[in-house]
From TrEMBL:
Gene Ontology MF terms in the entry: transmembrane transporter activity
Protein's name in the database: Ribose transport system permease protein
Annotated compartments: Cell membrane
CDD domains assigned: TM_PBP1_transp_AraH_like
GO CC term (a single one): plasma membrane
Transmembrane segments: 12-31, 64-81, 93-114, 120-140, 161-184, 214-233, 245-262, 268-285, 306-329, 391-407, 419-440, 446-463, 470-491, 497-518, 566-588, 609-633, 645-663, 670-692, 698-717
Superkingdom: Bacteria
Length: 745
């Protein structure tokens, strides 16, 4: 009975009530045993993943890569097993996939525990790399093997047995029981709770903290690999969309199941019930309500049975809200003892005390200077430039440009290419401007790409569907971006929710709302005066009847766009505010040591809130520019752009731990990302006249690796000055040998 508590009983009661709601809405589906079987079958895969995620979250970490791990292992199995590829037997292919899952978990663990990369950055990067590998290996196509699968017992795991339920449920039950016993009754579980509750105390108690955290990630990835095999055995094939969005459902399941995002609290049984609850909510939302519609065909009225369903995007948006609500349950409901206080208020009794919210008495410095920073004092000219944190990004921009000129001199230096580069640069650069403030604060904003999509959807919908004026559409789009930023800031500062969790929820909410607003369609046909925002100056002047005729002015107007000028204005203002005003110094102080900044009289919550609002506003502006440039809106707008923007800030000298970052550096970092993307898509002409272009499916793999290298470089080269430390130790060893030699003489 220690494995199950009151929280789990409450989840069961709520699920029963929700199922009754499903029966009332759609008795045809939820009133049959097929509904229960479908819910349990889908719960099985997410439940297995939730078992592994529980170990990670109790450890005070987070694994955003489980969806990509599921997809990648499923694709790997399909490539190994499919007769159109390697044609291996099922068992060896499955064992290789499980080994791949363990390897991904090991990499995540090493990045977090040994290389000190924040878990949300390490696993976010692995998410994008894994998704890029899935697209690259499948080529965006389906790999199927229905006929070959019939002769292998492994595929019975995805079949319905003689008792009428899917065998995946049995796999789920095994993982749930084993996971619950291991976490609650073994040394592995005790160490996990100890590390998550107080890592420093666990280390003093003799626990190998690094090994425990690595083990947690390996368990999580192994469970995701098993879930991938469960998917493959059911579908007898794989698509490039496998596992997409699964991380949201799994994290929400574990948090709904009673785990604390701050670590040290959570149970496997609760996580499994949380998975069942989230899947049930998803089913209720997706199945729709049976309705009868009357249509007229050839003058005859006919009644047609149909389903009234939520529009595209509604479900992920709702699940994003569930994630945020679930994260708030532990600190505000459990620790705040809300139900006990409510009962005391109703009965007139003395209210019980709130539980200790936890936390630490002292917040250490998150960023610190290095010997390189010290040597920069008093440096002049070239040495002073080389000591700047953004110097590497600026040098890299020049180097990448020269590479492009070397590969394709006939194309790279043309005005058309320059114009296209500036347009692509503007979108990433705008996002990176807002993120510079957020990251310098020590926060993160994972929602900028989705907020771009939401703002673009609002602008497009207002003009196309409502016939609104372009100025009204732009105003509403910018307001939506600022509102999303304010919501992120409110959750982060008012409810003390980690910024990566708050913005992860907004990542799904904004993306879902964008698809909901446009009903998953592409919109186009906007007023030309709006489209001018995405055009070059020549087209703008031509629209107003004053096109340049010849000379340098003609060349300039063809190469410079309206959005480039807008970016220049915003970047100039943002750079002045960050580098030359008291608010900018407050941003750096807050990111360097929030507690010390608060003691110095800085309203750190206000600083963090305004920075997130500015980030949302920049994303909103980028959304407007996207729609104007393409003259249409697609719900996939801004997809994965958050990775580009974060990488831009880190490459440009910002620190993921806060306290550093410049606008010039972020712009240089955005230029690096833009040039790399352009080079990877460049058609290279070979000496024999042939040409080749790198497949675009692999683009995210390169960008993810670049971000990972940039973060590791910041931690070890900038923060820990590993080269300086290595040189100091060599000098000390040499001095010791010299002293020993002089004594021997």
């Amino acid at each position: 009975m220690q494995l199950v508590g009151g929280w789990e009983a409450g989840l069961l009661a709520f699920m029963a009530l929700l199922y009754l709601v499903g029966i009332a809405l759609n008795p045809t589906f939820f009133g049959s045993t097929d509904a229960i079987s479908a819910v349990l079958r889908d719960t099985a895969r997410y439940g297995v993943m939730a078992v592994g995620m529980t170990f990670v979250i109790v450890n005070r970490d987070l694994d955003l890569s489980v969806g990509s791990t599921l997809g990648l292992t499923a694709v790997a199995f399909s490539i190994f097993f499919s007769p159109t590829h390697y044609g291996m037997d099922a068992v060896p292919a499955a064992l290789l996939c499980l080994a791949l899952g363990l390897a991904i978990g090991l990499v995540n663990g090493i990045l977090v525990a040994i290389l000190r990369v924040p878990p949300f950055i390490a696993t976010l990067t692995m998410l994008f790399i894994g998704r890029g590998l899935v697209l690259g290996l499948t080529g965006g196509k389906t790999i199927g093997f229905d006929i070959k699968a019939q002769g292998y017992w492994l595929f019975a795991m995805g079949e319905t047995n003689a008792l009428g339920f899917n065998n995946q449920i049995l796999v789920f039950l095994v993982f749930a029981v084993v996971g619950a016993v291991v976490l609650a009754k073994t040394r592995i579980g005790y160490e996990t709770y100890a590390v998550g509750g107080n890592e420093q105390a666990a280390q003093y108690a003799g626990i190998n903290v690094k090994a425990v955290r690595i083990r947690g990630f390996m368990i999580s990835s192994f469970c995701a690999a098993v879930a991938g095999l469960m998917n493959v055995t059911q579908d007898k094939g794989v698509t490039s969309q496998y596992g997409q969005g699964a991380e949201l459902i799994v994290i929400a399941a574990v948090i709904v199941g009673g785990a604390a995002i701050a670590g040290g609290r959570g149970r496997v049984i609760g996580a499994c019930l949380g998975a069942a609850l989230v899947v049930l909510i998803d089913k209720v939302l997706r199945e729709g309500i049976p309705v009868t519609r009357t249509i007229t065909v050839g003058g005859v009225e006919m009644e047609v049975q149909a389903l009234a369903q939520l529009p595209p995007g509604a479900v992920p948006a709702f699940l994003g809200f569930i994630l945020l609500a679930a994260v708030l349950i532990e600190p505000w409901v459990v620790r705040g003892n809300v139900f006990g206080r409510l009962r005391a208020w109703l009965t007139g009794a003395e209210p019980p005390p709130s539980l200790d919210p936890g936390g630490t008495a002292i917040v250490g410095v998150k960023t610190f200077g290095t010997a390189s920073d010290a040597r920069a004092v008093g440096a002049r000219r070239l040495r002073a430039f080389l000591h700047r944190r953004d110097a590497a990004a600026i040098i890299l921009v020049v180097a990448l440009w020269l590479v492009g000129m070397w590969l394709r001199p006939d194309f790279w230096g043309s005005l058309n290419n320059s114009f296209n580069l500036l347009l692509a640069f503007s979108e990433v650069a705008l996002l990176s401007l807002g993120l510079t403030y957020v990251i310098a604060n020590g926060d993160i904003d994972l929602s900028v790409g989705s907020v771009l999509a939401l703002s673009g959807a609002i602008a497009a919908y207002v003009m196309k569907e409502l016939g609104g004026d372009p100025l009204l559409a732009i105003g509403l789009a910018l307001a939506a971006g600022a509102l999303c930023g304010a919501f992120n800031g409110w959750l982060t500062t008012r409810f003390n929710m980690p910024s990566f969790v708050a913005t992860l929820g907004m990542f799904y909410i904004a993306r879902g709302l964008a698809a909901w607003i446009v009903s998953g369609r592409q919109l186009s046909g906007f007023p030309e005066r709006f489209n001018l925002i995405g055009r070059n100056l020549y087209e703008v002047l031509s629209y107003f009847g004053a096109p340049p005729q010849s000379g340098l002015w003609l060349e300039v107007t063809r190469a410079v766009s309206v959005q480039t000028l807008f970016l220049l204005v915003v970047a100039t203002i943002a750079g002045i505010v960050l580098g030359a005003t008291p608010f900018g110094q407050k941003v750096y102080a807050t990111g360097g040591n929030e507690r010390a900044a608060s003691y110095a009289g800085i309203d750190t919550k206000r600083v963090r809130f305004l920075s997130l609002v500015f980030s949302g506003l920049c994303a909103g502006a980028a959304g407007v520019i996207y729609v104007a440039f393409y003259r249409s809106f697609n719900p996939s707008a801004g997809l994965l752009r958050e990775l580009d923007a974060i990488a831009s800030v880190i490459i440009g000298g910002g620190s993921i731990f806060g306290g550093y970052g410049t606008i010039i550096g972020s712009l240089a970092g955005a230029a690096v990302i833009t040039l790399i993307r352009s080079l990877l898509s460049l058609q290279v002409i070979l000496a024999n006249g042939a040409s080749f272009v790198l497949p675009q499916h692999w683009m995210n793999v390169f960008i993810g690796l670049i971000l990972l290298i940039a973060v590791i470089g910041d931690i070890w080269f900038r923060q820990n000055n590993i080269f300086g430390e290595w040189r100091r130790r060599r000098q000390a060893a040499a001095a010791a040998r010299l002293e020993a030699g002089s004594k021997g003489a």
